[in-house]
Amino acid sequence: MEKELVRLSKCSMAFDGDVVLENIDLCVKDKEFLTLLGPSGCGKTTTLRIIGGFLKPDSGDVYFDGVRINDVPPHKRMVNTIFQKYALFTHLNVFENVAFGLRVQKHEGKKLDKYEISSRVIKMLEVVSLKGFEKRDVSLLSGGQQQRVAIARALVNHPKVLLLDEPLGALDMRLRKDMQNELKQIQQATGITFIYVTHDQEEALAMSDTVIVMEGGAIQQIGTPEDIYNEPKNAFVADFIGESNIVDGVMLSDGVVEIFGRKFKCLDSGFEHKEPVDVVIRPEDVDIVSPDKGKLIGTVTSVTFRGVLYDIIVDFHGFKWLIQTTDLCPVGKEIGIKIDPDGIHIMKKSRFSGMYGDYSSYSAEYDDISDAEYEYETEDEEEH
User: Fold this and answer.
1) β-pairing, 334-339 with 110-111?
2) DSSP codes, 145-181
3) Are 10 and 23 in contact (CB under 8 A)?
């Protein structure tokens, strides 16, 4: 059985009367890569800061290795933090940046000697693929190299937990993808527990052992990346994790759901007869067929080329669906669709029902603008 390392029990927090966390319960296991995922203002950074000791919850308890640590200051917790701004010492070279914490650290009441410091720094630089950079001026390093220095500096003290608050936000897309792989490899090589904060769904799915999806100061779902993507608990999770068509449905019986007056086979069961439900259908799970073979018939209203796939918007009974396909379907063409039972996921109605899943306002430009807003998000905005 995996050891529990960090636990938050019924933690709540408010700023100026605004609740930002409400009765949060979560468990982090030893040597786990756990990601807190959600949009701006959902409470993920506040949760991270509570774990790090930078904030104290208004109510609830924080446990580390079974011991309550609410009143333990950050520097006495076996936790280090990497923020989006690395805060490297520009007057020190790579070696001295990494060694800085070791020079003030004491082991059994004594400062570490220079040989121990040198050995640990060199070993950590090897872990982050910066061997040979010891004397390099940090201001001359690339963004990815600077991040590696920040990681080495945080890990050289052998923390039990490393907290990472959107550390890849300042990097370009290609470098971000490279660093995602690097971070996962570093976490596996060191065996240190990583708690990672991001709003980037792809980042969370690619790196994590466990993903915690947050919204409105509450946890919406906890699970593996596969569980979160394939079995979302509500419309918010389904929409936030990847693209989703979310339509109203009625469960007629176990394994049969009605959508737009048509019966579809599914794999879900346990719902009441004629219970209203939310139906999630991922764009990649929709097959385009000729109208005479389709369970639903619609008209293509928009086509966007994505390199490997086309994003096609199709109007079905006034509801706009997104379909991802390698087949080009021109605007105005009438098509049919077919969906296999394992491509349909049924969810209980929730407060998020009716809020997501219609692509009437979909455009690539809008997506880019939405992503750009996150790049300039301030820490204060995240907290409040």
Assistant:
1) unpaired
2) HHHHHHHHHHHTT--SEEEEESTTTTS-HHHHHHHHH
3) yes
Question: In this structure, is the dihedral angle defined by the CA atoms of residues 117, 119, 125 and 131, taken in order, positive or negative?
Answer: positive
Distance from C-alpha of 6 to C-alpha of 193, rounded to nearest angstrom: 10
Which amino acid is present at 125? L
Other beta carbons within 10 angstroms of residue 293's beta carbon come to 11
pTM of the entire structure? Answer: 0.84
Query: How far is it, in rounded angstroms, from Cα 58 to Cα 70?
Result: 10
pLDDT along the chain (384 residues), means of 10: 90 93 96 95 95 96 96 92 81 92 68 87 89 92 86 88 86 79 88 94 94 96 96 95 94 96 95 97 95 94 92 93 93 95 96 92 48 40 44
Name the β-bridge partners of 53. Answer: none
Whole-number Å distance between alpha carbons of 122 and 156: 10
For residue 334, what is the enclosing H or E element? strand 334-339
Contact between 151 and 186 (Cβ < 8 Å): yes
Task: Provide DSSP, 85-153.
Answer: S----TTSBHHHHHHHHHHH-EETTEEPPHHHHHHHHHHHHHHTT-TT-TT-BGGGS-HHHHHHHHHHH
Separation between Cα atoms, residue 197 and residue 81, nearest integer Å? 11
| Cα four-point dihedral sign 4, 33, 282, 217 | positive
Q: Where are the domains of the chain?
A: 4-230, 244-375
How do strand 345-348 and strand 275-281 relate by DSSP bridges?
A: antiparallel
Q: Are 27 and 16 in contact (CB under 8 A)?
A: no
- Note the CATH architecture for domain 4-230: 3-Layer(aba) Sandwich (3.40)
Do β-strands 310-316 and 262-265 pair in parallel, antiparallel, or remain unpaired?
unpaired
Architecture of the CATH domain 244-375: Beta Barrel (2.40)
Of 207, 230, 206, 233, which Cα lies nearest the Cα of 222? 233
Distance CA 247, CA 299 (A): 17
Q: Cα–Cα distances in Å, from 322 out to 9, 209, 226, 285, 339?
A: 40, 29, 21, 10, 13
